[in-house]
Description:
The protein has helices at 7-16, 30-37, 50-58, 60-66, 82-93, 106-116, 131-134, 156-165, 169-173, 179-193, 204-216, 224-231, 235-247, 276-283, 288-292, 297-315, 396-400, and strands at residues 19-23, 43-46, 71-74, 99-103, 121-125, 251-254, 270-273, 322-326, 332-339, 342-348, 371-372, 375-379, 385-386, 391-395. The chain is α/β, with parallel strands linked by helices. The chain folds into 2 domains: 7-125, P-loop containing nucleotide triphosphate hydrolases (Rossmann fold); 131-400, no CATH class.
Amino acid sequence: MYEREALGIIKEINSSFKVLLVTGPRQVGKTTLLLSIKPDNMEYVTLDDEVLRNQAINDPKLFLEEHPAPLLIDEAQYAPNLFSYIKINVDKENKNGMYWLTGSQQFHLMKNVSESLAGRVGIVNLNSFTYSEIVRNTSKLLFDPLELKKADKINVNKLFEIIFTGGMPELYKNKNINRNIYFQGYIDTYISRDVRELSEVGNVESFKKFIVSVATRTGERLNYSALAMDAGISVPTAKSWLSILTSSGLVYLLEPYMSSELKRLTHTPKIIFMDTGLACFLAGWDDSKELQTSSSAGHYLETFVISEIIKSYNAKGLKPNLTYYRDKDKNEIDLIIYKNNKLYPFEIKKTASPNESMIKNFKLLEKTKKEIGVGGIICCYDTLMHLNDNNYIIPISSVINASNE
């Protein structure tokens, strides 16, 4: 079994909260992870079972009486009425680790949890495998500009194979699986079980065109008009449908950096598809080499690096403060990490020959009242080293596979 980075925070939450919620996209391993560590006396039920789901919806009190704590409830979003009764039970017993919940429809799930279980639930957002989980690096550290770490070089061909494959656990557990058939089934299941339940989606074929359009634009600035045109829908519908993709964890919107001291900044977020393998499938890429040598390679590499940072922070129960910079003159900084009242700027480049001209836009941040911290170029160079006094050449391996060594 592949060890997950989220294991530590899950155990910590179980020992200090009455309810644990693990949320995230479908098929990223939520249930598998919890079943592998659940106590022997904890019962498991899934609301994918129509009989159990109907009972949980129609008579939640009886459902919890017949399935007493400790209890693991899979796909808990199907029975939102359960949460108020779970609250009653945990307040009565006052024990930690009574209920474990999983769910893949984050918008509705989080709304119900926040209303019913505030202060009683610890939440972990699980994503598809990180690179470190794939290569079984159990000593992975979070990417921290203040503590840059050396790591073994990743061959660029291998890197793009990982980007092309993505991190869906089933693709690594089942070596004989057909990637295209798997992803097609994933999209069909996602639409039939998650999307169709949302009233905002009427035309399934248009939604499929829409999600393909989003995938082809990963790493690019969000353009609702272009997305709407591709899918043959209105701009308001495009906005509504993108909110579905973000709330279900498939897409992350990297917000632009905003500052009162800086004028003429863009207000448009950037699209980050959280699993690059799924994005590649939807966008129609046939193999990793075609992607690697294409004009889109830089966007997919940027998507991969940023999504890896987000995934690892999620696995620790943290939310990184990430933005990017772009102004009306088209000056851009790919990634800014805000931490300790400092701005840490980074460029993400598919190059093995980085140079100082690639970070010329960093000086634009000097107009802010924030201190500018360590930055650099995240790239395909093989050694962590200084670029100048305050910036580094940072191998991609030092971001996605950093270890204690």
